[in-house]
């Protein structure tokens, strides 16, 4: 009997995890992680697309709700939010 492996989504070689309307981006073993909260959606054809996304660069404690926010902003779509957030994450991880 074969077991099905769940596909893990990545962006620029870092994992993406979705829980409801929140997307976590980054390596769980790193010091920082990105938290994207979809607060509004709009219909494009038959699909719901994010129309307002809060971006937060947080300390990765491993415990949801107890994170320290280092940077935050809001964007009008998921791609832009992920793109700027990825830059924040790379910059934060590069600092020692």
Order of helices and strands: EEEEEEH
Question: Structural class, from helix and strand content?
Answer: alpha+beta
Number of distinct helices: 1
Query: N-to-C terminal Cα separation, in Å?
Result: 47 Å
Mean pLDDT: 87
Give the C-alpha Rg. 14 Å
Poorly predicted ranges = none
Global outline: globular
Spatial sequence of strands, sheet with the most strands:
1-2-3-4-5-6
Percent range of helical residues: 10-25%
**What is the count of β-strands?**
6
How much strand content do the residues show? over 45%
Return the domain count: 1
Largest sheet: 6 strands, antiparallel
Overview of the molecule:
- The protein is an alpha+beta fold and 96 residues long.
- The chain has one domain.
- Helices cover 18% and strands 48% of the residues.
- It is built from 1 helix and 6 strands; from the N terminus they run ββββββα.
- It has a 6-stranded antiparallel sheet, with helices on one face.
- The longest helix has 17 residues.
- The termini are far apart.
Brief digest:
The protein is α+β, with helices and mostly antiparallel strands. The chain has one helix and six strands; from the N terminus they run E-E-E-E-E-E-H. A hairpin with a 2-residue loop joins strand 4 and strand 5.
Question: Which helices and strands, and how do they pair?
Answer:
Blueprint lengths: L8 E3 L2 E6 L2 E4 L6 E13 L2 E13 L9 E7 L2 H17 L2
Antiparallel strand pairs: 1-2, 2-3, 3-4, 4-5, 5-6
